Structure formats: C-alpha cells, structure tokens
Amino acid sequence: MDLQQLIRKNIQALKPYSSARDEYTGEAMVFLDANENPFNAPYNRYPDPLQRELKVAISKQKSCEADQIFLGNGSDEPIDLLFRAFCEPGKDNIVTIDPTYGMYQVAADINNIEVRKVKLNDNYGFSAEALLEKTDKHTKLIFVCSPNNPTGNLLDNKELIKLIQTFEGLVILDEAYIDFAPGASLLPKLSHYENLVILQTFSKAWGMAGIRLGMAFANPEIIRVFNKIKYPYNINMLTQQKALELIEQEADKNQWVELLIQERKALEEKLSKLPFVVKVFPSDANFLLVKMYDARGIYDFLVENGIIVRDRSKVVLCDDSLRITVGSPEENQILLDKLNELL
Ligand code: PMP
C-alpha cells in the first residue's frame, strides 16, 4: 500500500493548525501563548491537543504503541476523518457489508462518497472475495464491523485477514463491541498490517458513552494523517481526566463485561422460550437481535410500557427483528416480565 497515494491531494498539501503547545510539553512558569483566562484553573487551560498521557495509559492497557493511537470524540470522529482524509467527494467510493452500523453510510453521505454494499450471507457471515469484487481504483476504504451491529456476530478472522492482505486501500475494522468477545480482537496483530485501522470505543464495555471517547489504532503514518486534520483540541480535559481514572479501575470493566456476557446468555435463553419469538441470533456483543412475529407491535407495546429497544425490522436481512441491549439483571427482568404479560 502506498499511503501517500491514498491521501486526498488537498490533505497532502494541507498546512495544519498548530499551537505553541504542540511542541512544548513541559511545565512552564507562565503560559501566555493561547489567550486563555488566567483565572478558574484548571479549566481555563486548553487540554493537551495530542492527549499524550492518556495515550500512554491506553497503550499499556492495549499492549500497543502510543503512536499507533488516535483518540476521537467517540469512534464516530475517526469514521468521519477517514472520509475527509482519503475520499475525494463525488469521485471515490467505499465498500461495506449490509446490514451494518449506520454511521459509515451517514459519514459517506455527508462527504458525498458512494457506498457499495455487499449483503451478508444467511448466517450473517461475509466473504472477502465478495467485498473485493465490488472494489475498483476509486475504492479507498472498506468498512467491516466485528462483532457486527445490528447482527451481533463476530466476522470470520480468516476472511478478515484475507481482505486486509488483498485490498490495496485501507480496511477499517470496527471493534466497538470486541470486549464482549474475549480473545477475538485483531489488535494484537495490528503491526502486521500497514493498511488496517481498528476502531474501538469507551462507550460500551468501559461504560463511558457519556464522556465521548473513541479510539483508532493504526500504523503511525495513518495516525499522523488523522492528527493533521482533526480539530485542535478534540478531546476535552474532563474526558481525558476521567478516562485516565477509569483505566486505573480496569477491574470494574472486566467485572461488568463478565456479568453482561452471563446476562446475554440468560436473556437469550429466556427470550427463546417466548412463543412469539422466532429466533434469537447468537451474539458476541452486548445486544441481541431477536426475530419475532409482529416485531413492530411488540416494539410499540414495550414503548407504551416505558421500555425502549431498537426496531430493526426495516433493516435489510433483519425483517421482524428488534435489537435489544443486554441491561442489568434488574432491567432484563423488567423486560421479560413485560413480555410475559403478552402470553
Ligand atoms: N461502531 C459501532 C459498531 C457502534 O455500534 C457504535 C455506537 N452505537 C459506534 C461505533 C460509535 O460509538 P461511539 O461514537 O460512542 O464511540
């Protein structure tokens, strides 16, 4: 892969915004460089534009290098930046699976990029071959998601690796839900593949959707492209501080994940027994895709009773299906009790 060749011409030529603190990282006696207010410390100061301390903590937690990490305002930020860095509006295209996470399409539409979709097979699996067939010289990115949203299943690692090894552009592997599939991440193999971008997030297993912190892992050359075009202070100070604190308490995350995996199994078993449930699809994530007779009717009934799930029945290959997040044991029981009222 020739990365320079993939980058949009205007981005190659871009002179990025810079601040005095891009270079200066020490503790100065007086900071008079950024027109900040001297009062109301510490919130008066701009945060570290490159989140260096947080990246070191994440690199230890993930066993990777700090310069292989980009942090964004949720993982939706790197998704958008990928389009802006690599896809020429009105000319380039991306390839992805169908169904999958909706933001790839939205980010493509915002950036005026064609999306070529390949339907998953009956078991919600995919073939690298089918995706590669859709590519041409204007295909810059291929997006895959594992475990996939909304189907919940992991994608086959052999097919993923074949895809990464064969495609000349970047493969974006969205691992937002990977903590719920222990041992399945391709992150330990990141350094083998110069065209691989792995997305993860603090929004799911880490329980931090509210602080908006997403991660992209890739070779440092790709990370430099993200850094070149991102907003200067894209991760605020409070988010950086809170994330540092929570990484210290990794044991909590591990406990939550363990409990949620148990609850996923229990909920799957109990939902499968309901007569109006046609099928609960196997899940490697923290949600279940559930096919039902009259999914819309059941959705409306749940909403009327204060329980919100996601109606996916209009999504391709998901007809009559609701996507249900695995909640706390209490929340799951409330859901089951309500559904049992329908019997
Ligand atoms: N990827 C996938 C597959 C998702 O389902 C989501 C959120 N629903 C995201 C990325 C975005 O996560 P965030 O922006 O909160 O990091």
UniProtKB/TrEMBL annotation:
Report the enzyme's class at the first EC level. Answer: transferase
Residues the record lists as N6-(pyridoxal phosphate)lysine modifications: K204
Every Aminotransferase class I/classII large domain range: 42-339
InterPro entries from the xrefs?
Answer: Aminotrans_II_pyridoxalP_BS, Aminotransferase_I/II_large, HisP_aminotrans, PyrdxlP-dep_Trfase, PyrdxlP-dep_Trfase_major, PyrdxlP-dep_Trfase_small
* GO MF annotation: an example: histidinol-phosphate transaminase activity
Which Pfam families does the entry link to? Aminotran_1_2 (PF00155)
Give cofactor(s), names only.
pyridoxal 5'-phosphate
Q: Which UniProt keywords apply?
A: Amino-acid biosynthesis, Aminotransferase, Histidine biosynthesis, Pyridoxal phosphate, Transferase
Similarity-based family: Belongs to the class-II pyridoxal-phosphate-dependent aminotransferase family. Histidinol-phosphate aminotransferase subfamily.
What is the protein's name according to its record?
Histidinol-phosphate aminotransferase
